[in-house]
Amino acid sequence: MKCFLVLLILNEEFIFCKELLKVRQFSMQKKIYIAAPAYTASGGPELLHQLCYKLNKFGFCAQMLYYTYGEGKKSIENPIHPHYEVYKNPYTISFEEANSEEAIVIIPELAIDLINHIKKSQNMIWWLSVDNYYGYVDIMYKKDIRKEENVDIFKLKDSNILHLVQSCYAMDFVEKRLGIAKEKVYYLSDYLRKDFEVKKDIMSRKDYCLYNPQKGFDKVLHIMSKNPKIIWLPIENMTPKQVVDLMSEAKVYVDFGNHPGKDRIPREAAMRGCCVITNKAGSAAYEEDVPIPEKYKFEDIYKSGENIVYLINDIYQNFESHKREFDAYRKKIEEEESIFDADVLKIFGEFANE
């Protein structure tokens, strides 16, 4: 018998999650498998490993289910990427083991075709992104469904599959574009690793503007052309520690990508003290997903080039005042882990005990 009491700190007040005040007897009847690509490090796989870690911490029976792309999907050696060894998650590569009526299988949207191989279990699609789903369908089925009325090519609407959504952007997509009933959709977002916890600056910051070359690089190039004097530094081919150190030194991070989900790098940059500038694509259009002041978001990057350059230079000159504009954003990011914990307990406390 274990009693879990989760204390959420929201709006500087202690709010108790009613569902977690109950004494729960976690005599688990269902095992939980979290499908993830083998030996792959990025934001999505990180979150999948975090979920497995949290589930086991809370007394559930969870393990990773590693897969590979192509013919080797059901057979893989040494699947754990070094970045995720810290979680010490148990794992399996056996789809037969997971394909059981006594199992719950969490499947990221980029591996949605796994539902055709795992049919006996209670499957949950975790929508970590939206745009990447379109890209996956385009690559696998040679079909661009972005502008089509029917985007539910896997017939998810009529199945007993449940859906987890990492962002409000994804929730809109699942409920409105796929037509999934609200009672089948559960919000389960994410949180940042402790590496990016905000700390008092111990060094003077430099007039650096950071960017991810994998995210809207054509738009970044356009802004670069407007003012060659701005020093632009790419975030690429770095260890997590190197990213932390660079963000701790810079003043600005820009992200003009498609924001397929609630992206990690803008939050990581903010937590390390950077001011964040984005476009309004994907999740960045949602206040709930990217709650930064409106003046740091731009609808059309090409038409706003001069304004963006002016803003960057103003941040350089008045960094402390601009940095304070992101205090509310940082506070919300700090609260994400406790909210994630509560949501994990609520969702899986219901389904793992059925």
TrEMBL record:
Q: What is this protein called?
A: Glycosyltransferase family 1 protein
Q: Which organism is it from?
A: Lachnotalea glycerini
Please name the taxonomic classification of the source: Bacteria, Bacillati, Bacillota, Clostridia, Lachnospirales
